[in-house]
Amino acid sequence: MSSSRPLHPRGHGDDAIRITTAGSSPQADIARRQRRYVIAMSIRTLCFIGAAISGAAGIHWLWPLLIAGAIILPYVAVVAANAEDSRSTELPLTGGGDAQRQLGEGPGGERG
Fold it and tell me: What is the pLDDT at residue 34?
């Protein structure tokens, strides 16, 4: 059964959209950021506990390193939790064309 409706309603020149460059959902992004933050803060807690244990055990060279790690980790945790997704559209689509969607010509041949 044939129909007069075109297969591509917006025209035959539509470029493909790469799904691999699509961002994740807001819920997945928040969950990823929270997971990174909780892991870093757990390591920080372990550094404090390790510093207390090593200080009590008389390992005087280890506890300052663990305290330094516990002091630096909050900064690292915040930076890691706020890091943006690293997906990029810099790789060209196979078959040529620009990876970014662009507006076509408007009525009367004007770009718009």
Answer: 87
